[in-house]
């Protein structure tokens, strides 16, 4: 019976010694984690890349079945303005950049999957709907292998 009490008291003494050590290690680990957290977050935000419209559309079309590698080129027509073009008085007082924007008037799409007529038609239909372009303004050619 005496041995059991002594054994129990030894275990309790060991627990009392290790408990503060474990708490201290937990605090140090938490502080280290919170110190490292902001540095990893800033590195991930620095790597964000602004994609062009062409690249966004390329990434989306690559996800379609059978398309494969793809490259898209936008054709921009004449500069248009939100202000009526025939109004000479308004044209005289505004700069050339004010209110002017470029409209996509056509597209060239080079795709690995363009050999297949069904994939080609699917690409043309999707791009026509997304870009609000008539189908005859979208040229799709197969990519060289």
Describe this entry's structure for a reader.
With 145 residues, the protein is of the alpha+beta class. 52% of the residues lie in helices and 20% in strands. It is built from 4 helices and 3 strands. It has a 3-stranded mixed beta sheet with strand order 1-2-3, with helices on one face. α4 links the parallel β2 (100-111) and β3. It is rod-shaped. The relative contact order is 0.11.
First-residue to last-residue Cα separation: 86 Å
The helix/strand order is HHEHEHE
Morphology: rod-shaped
- Sheet with the most strands: spatial strand order: 1-2-3
The biggest sheet amounts to: 3 strands, mixed
Percentage of residues assigned to helices = 40-55%
Tally of helical segments: 4
In terms of structural class, how would the helical and strand content be classed? alpha+beta
Mean pLDDT: 75
pLDDT under 50 segments (min length 5)? none
Tell me the total number of β-strands.
3
Beta-strand level of the residues, as a percent range? 15-25%
């Amino acid at each position: 019976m005496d041995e059991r009490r002594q054994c129990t008291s030894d275990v309790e003494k060991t627990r009392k010694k290790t408990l503060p050590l474990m708490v201290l290690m937990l605090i140090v680990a938490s502080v280290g984690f919170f110190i490292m957290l902001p540095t990893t977050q800033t590195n991930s935000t620095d790597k964000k890349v602004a994609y062009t419209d062409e690249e966004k559309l390329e990434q989306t079309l690559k996800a379609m079945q059978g398309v494969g590698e793809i490259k898209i080129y936008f054709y921009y027509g004449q500069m248009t303005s939100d202000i009526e073009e025939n109004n000479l008085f308004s044209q005289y007082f505004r700069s050339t950049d004010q209110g002017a924007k470029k409209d996509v008037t056509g597209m060239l799409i080079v795709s690995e999957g363009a050999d297949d007529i069904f994939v080609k038609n699917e690409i043309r239909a999707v791009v026509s709907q997304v870009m609000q372009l008539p189908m005859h303004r979208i040229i799709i050619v197969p990519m060289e292998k």
